[in-house]
Specification:
Number of domains: 2
Bound molecules: S-adenosyl-L-homocysteine
CATH class of the largest domain: Alpha Beta
Radius of gyration: 26 Å
Distance between the termini: 57 Å
CATH superfamily of the largest domain: Vaccinia Virus protein VP39
Oligomer: single chain
Largest sheet: 7 strands, antiparallel
Number of helices: 18
Length: about 475
């Protein structure tokens, strides 16, 4: 490896947000002085190579002590022969030591806390991070596959194994620069999780609490990352049972087998045929589109979009200029892509719509900034504890101005002749609410998060049992 010594194990973070020296408040490290910290594997130094109002760079330099490393290395299998213990690349590269150092030195910054500049900590800033020597199994393409979906502009310089012997070819070391408009906490958590994933050789033993750590630091981005399975598996060092546990928690009920998804599709069809006589589905979609139009909405996210029935209606109306569909089921998104002919759409049309894979259980920054969210026949699929998570994801974090939500009215079920008494309309429904139950839930939710709510029936209204579908419209 031929990188210069002063390049070793260096992470720098630069901002040009004015005043740039506020970076010191976000990192809880004063730009005016250098500081050193003792860690179990050596020393970490934090200093600012530049700190002006226009541009400020914080640097984290790790000085890993190979002897301390061996002393502290207590793998369960007593791994490593004598030679391997002393001659390894660990001291020189941004391996998981960097992650450990990040969490020890920048714990508050990772969590998005800043005593002096709390608002700035929540704000997206122009940021550039540079890792001087990042080992990556899988090469540049892999680096890009992990970083680009997170919104980074990535530049990568590969290093040759030895400049004096070019025929040895490329090494697995890269200098990597990431650029994005993002929060400091996001940048740091991405690095924290991904550095060991690139390296694929965590220096400490992976245990159960790693699952918890991964989920905590992955909140808001990992569940929706196209490479999340890969990231999870590598982060947990290929321990299948841990990885499976993490994935299940990450994507909740979405991590079902293809078989399960197929069963779900059949059940959805059964429900559809039950309601077909009324063409209830059409009436429901009409009712939702009418509300959105009346409210003057043009940017809308459809949560649990399924095969894209509502998305198709939204595309027909030109007023909806920015449409996002999200679902936890890949299969549904594939069907939506087909049914909406996304691949054959004109470029102009294509700009109006986007489909993303994600779960309603996890805070997701891609859901922010929409005027309205629609949640059509989705909540009844969520287990009660998950319903509580969903409530916060939507009303506390995404916080659109309007939410249009529909769910079956259980009272109406007696009017479906083919539905046995006491059964739900769809085998996957976890519950179906009566009108008072729905109104109590939605009313409490509105009050808790500062929304007003009104209710409307959808479909033919029966004097005693009401309409087959109930709709709530929340306004902030
Ligand atoms: N809104 C659509 C689909 C309703 S079926 C329509 O009206 O046609 C319920 C949908 O919610 C399914 O597509 C299912 O995959 C999705 N879903 C269930 N749990 C979810 C979760 N945790 N996150 C996101 N989508 C979820």
């Amino acid at each position: 490896m031929t990188s210069r010594l002063e390049d070793a194990l260096l992470l720098t973070v630069t901002t040009t947000h004015v005043p740039a020296t506020d970076l010191g408040y976000l990192l809880h490290k004063n730009p005016a002085r250098a500081q050193s910290f003792e860690l179990s594997f050596g020393q970490a130094h934090v200093f600012y190579p530049e700190a002006t109002a226009e541009r400020c760079t914080a640097a984290l330099l790790l000085d890993v002590d190979p002897v301390a490393l061996v002393r502290d290395r207590k793998g369960p299998s007593g791994e490593g022969g004598a030679l391997e213990q002393y001659v390894n690349d660990r001291p020189y590269v941004a391996s998981s030591f960097m992650s450990v150092a990040l969490s020890r030195l920048f714990n508050a910054a990772l969590a998005g806390r800043s005593q002096e500049r709390p608002a700035l900590a929540q704000q997206a800033l122009p940021l550039v991070a540079r890792l001087s020597v990042l080992p990556c199994r899988g090469g540049e393409a892999f680096l890009r596959r992990l970083l680009e979906p997170l919104g980074y502009q990535v530049s990568v310089t590969p290093h040759v194994l030895d400049e004096t012997v070019p025929e040895w070819g490329p090494s697995r070391y890269f200098t990597v620069t990431l650029e994005a408009h993002t929060r400091v906490s996001e940048l740091l958590t991405h690095l924290y999780v991904l550095i060991p994933v690139f390296d694929d050789d965590k220096h400490y033993w992976v245990s159960d609490d790693e699952v918890e750590k991964l989920l905590r630091h992955g909140e808001g981005w990992l569940a929706a990352h196209p490479e999340r399975e890969f990231i999870t598996r590598r982060y947990l060092r290929h321990q299948k049972s841990l990885a499976r546990e993490a994935l299940e928690q990450l994507i909740g009920e979405g991590h079902s087998s293809t078989e399960e998804q197929e069963r779900e599709r059949v059940r959805t069809e059964q429900e559809a045929s039950l309601e077909a006589k009324l063409s209830l589905n059409d009436q429901r979609l009409r009712a939702v589109v009418d509300v959105l139009q009346a409210e003057g909405v043009s940017r809308v996210v459809d949560l649990g979009c399924g095969e894209g029935k509502l998305l198709r209606e939204l595309l027909k109306e030109r007023r909806f200029t920015d449409i996002l569909g999200m679902d936890v089921s890949w299969r549904s998104l594939e069907l939506a892509t087909e049914r909406l002919h996304l691949d054959r759409m004109s470029e102009l049309q294509r700009k109006r719509i986007q489909l993303i894979h994600g779960s309603l259980m996890y805070r997701d920054r891609r859901l922010a900034g929409y005027q309205a969210a629609t949640v059509i026949e989705v909540v009844e699929h969520l287990d009660p504890p998950r319903l509580a998570a969903f409530e916060r994801v939507l009303f506390e974090f995404a916080r659109p101005e309007r939410v249009v939500l529909t769910t079956p009215n259980a009272e109406y079920n007696v009017r479906f002749e083919s539905l046995p008494e006491g059964k739900f309309r769809h085998a996957d429904h976890r519950f179906e609410w009566t009108r008072p139950e729905f109104e109590a839930w939605a009313g409490a939710l509105a009050e808790r998060f500062g929304y007003a709510v009104r209710f409307a029936p959808v479909g033919p209204v029966d004097d005693t049992v009401g309409a087959p579908t109930q709709m709530a419209v929340f306004s902030r």
